[in-house]
Amino acid sequence: MKKSELKELYKMMFPEYPDIVAVTQLRQMLGISRQLAYDLINDGYIPGVKIGNAFKIPKVNVINYVMEERREKNAS
Known about the structure:
Layout: H1 3-12, E1 20-22, H2 23-30, H3 34-42, E2 49-51, E3 54-58, H4 59-75
Antiparallel strand pairs: 1-3, 2-3
Keywords: DNA-binding
Domain Helix-turn-helix: 23-67
Organism: [Clostridium] leptum DSM 753
């Protein structure tokens, strides 16, 4: 994805969420279960950083994940 595309998507997608989200916010953003959220992070589909006992996920990683899933569905 081009940098300019990402900038536009960043403005449009999930504007109500901060730049760095917690797992709870990730779940709300994607409408997924707690287990699936942790599976996506632990399996590397959505890169996050563990700080203490909590994961922090850059919003840009969530956007990249959503767009990649969309691309794969359109390719099928």
